[in-house]
TrEMBL record:
Cellular localisation: Mitochondrion matrix
InterPro entries reported for this sequence: ClpP/crotonase-like_dom_sf, Enoyl-CoA_hyd/isom_CS, Enoyl-CoA_hydra/iso
Protein name: Enoyl-CoA delta isomerase 1, mitochondrial
A Gene Ontology cellular-component term: mitochondrial matrix
Pathway listed: Lipid metabolism; fatty acid beta-oxidation
Reaction it catalyzes: a (3E)-enoyl-CoA = a 4-saturated (2E)-enoyl-CoA; (3Z)-decenoyl-CoA = (2E)-decenoyl-CoA; (2E)-tetradecenoyl-CoA = (3Z)-tetradecenoyl-CoA; (3Z)-dodecenoyl-CoA = (2E)-dodecenoyl-CoA
CDD domains, A to Z: crotonase-like (cd06558)
Gene: ECI1
Domain of life according to the entry: Eukaryota
Subunit-structure text: Homotrimer.
Main localization, broad class: mitochondrion
Protein role: Key enzyme of fatty acid beta-oxidation. Able to isomerize both 3-cis (3Z) and 3-trans (3E) double bonds into the 2-trans (2E) form in a range of enoyl-CoA species, with a preference for (3Z)-enoyl-CoAs over (3E)-enoyl-CoAs. The catalytic efficiency of this enzyme is not affected by the fatty acyl chain length.
Organism: Vombatus ursinus (Common wombat)
Length: 312
């Protein structure tokens, strides 16, 4: 198996914004329309579309089908900066509160990069208060995605290292562009940092313990075909079919009655989400003290330098 690495080195029912069952779920489900036919592109008729956007997040809601497409837009590499994460949470809450929205396709506005992961500049050379705020936002985005009532499909249209991979892992289904130049994986160890327990839990739940041990320790980044083999993604398709495949997979998922699917998702994911929720503050303090260490700051500095100087 060809492995590539960049070398160089709420649940709690009622909890704000992360509860798995929004009030009225059962009532709404009983009257919900089934999705019989989905358009093959995002060219929805104007009347049924409701786009909204912020600086770094573009959202297009197809109200007649109940599906939103959310695009990350943070050039040049869609890094998950504090600003992007904050805007993500605001947009996500808007979708969660939109009764017509049952599913979200998460993708990137950039053609080659789904997301370069957490913005390293938010973890380097800042003060403890900044690190704490940043990490809280990372936790919040993961909790929102992982515990969402909506069907979440990641349309991975480019490379997806570290935090980008985490966002995909938190989705219900992953479709990746079949281009061997793209990679996906939790490569934290290559930066001299450590994926926290909840990144690890999400990976183990997806690809199993042994494959996770191997992938995490070596910081492996998998090309699409290998990611498919180990179950890190569910499907690989030609680059120009990622969005249309996501729409047709979504239509299949939305045939399942919402209440049954949501309760099943809760049953599967609640223990993992609860583990973070129970020690959220301690996890923030762990992050702050880990990332503030001189040795870790030095590793991040070296990695940023490597990224800037490497041959393209
Ligand atoms: C005991 C346990 C305690 C645990 C406590 C917690 C510990 C901390 C846990 C932290 C978890 C971290 C998760 C992460 O997500 S870290 C980020 C990891 N990401 C990467 O390694 C990806 C790096 N980037 C790339 O590989 C490439 O950029 C990419 C393939 C995405 C695109 O390549 P391309 O050639 O198109 O673009 P460039 O490399 O030229 O990049 C353009 C500019 O963007 C800058 N860049 C890239 N990635 C990042 C990033 N993640 N953050 C910030 N900036 C980034 C890059 O430097 C270039 O900048 P310049 O234009 O200035 O040169």
């Amino acid at each position: 198996m060809a492995l590539r690495a960049v070398s160089a080195l709420t649940w709690g029912l009622g909890g704000p914004g992360v509860g798995p069952l929004r009030s009225g779920t059962f009532l709404r489900c009983a009257t919900q329309h089934r999705l019989e036919k989905m358009p093959s592109s995002i060219g929805f008729p104007e009347a049924s579309r409701r786009p909204f956007s912020s600086h770094r997040i573009l959202v297009d809601v197809d109200q007649s089908h109940g599906v939103a497409t959310m695009k990350l837009k943070n050039p040049p590499v869609n890094s998950l900066s504090l600003e992007l994460l904050t805007e993500f949470v605001i947009s996500w809450e808007k979708l969660e509160n939109d009764k017509s929205c049952r599913g979200v396709i998460l993708t990137s506005n950039s053609p080659k990069i789904f997301s370069a992961g957490l913005d390293i500049t938010d973890m380097y050379g800042k003060n403890a208060a900044h690190y704490a705020e940043f990490w809280k936002a990372v936790q919040e985005v993961w909790l929102k995605l992982y515990t969402s009532n909506m069907v979440v499909i990641a349309a991975i249209n480019g490379s997806s290292p570290a935090g980008g991979c985490l966002m995909s892992l938190a989705s219900d289904y992953r479709i990746m562009a079949d281009n061997p130049k793209y990679t996906i994986g939790l490569n934290e160890t290559l930066l001299g940092i450590v994926a926290p327990f909840w990144f690890k839990d999400n990976l183990v739940n997806t690809i199993g313990n042994r494959a996770s041990e191997h992938a995490l320790q070596r910081g492996l980044l998998f090309p699409p075909a290998d990611a498919l083999k180990i179950g890190l993604v569910d499907q690989i398709v030609p680059e120009d079919k990622v969005q249309s495949t996501a729409l047709s997979v979504m239509s299949e998922w939305l045939k399942i009655p919402d209440h049954a699917r949501q309760l099943t998702k809760t049953m599967m994911r609640k223990p993992t989400a609860d583990r973070l929720l129970k020690q959220r503050e301690a996890d923030i303090q762990n992050f702050v003290s880990f990332i503030s260490k001189d040795s870790i700051q030095k590793s991040l500095h070296m990695y940023l330098k490597f990224l800037k100087e490497r041959e393209k």
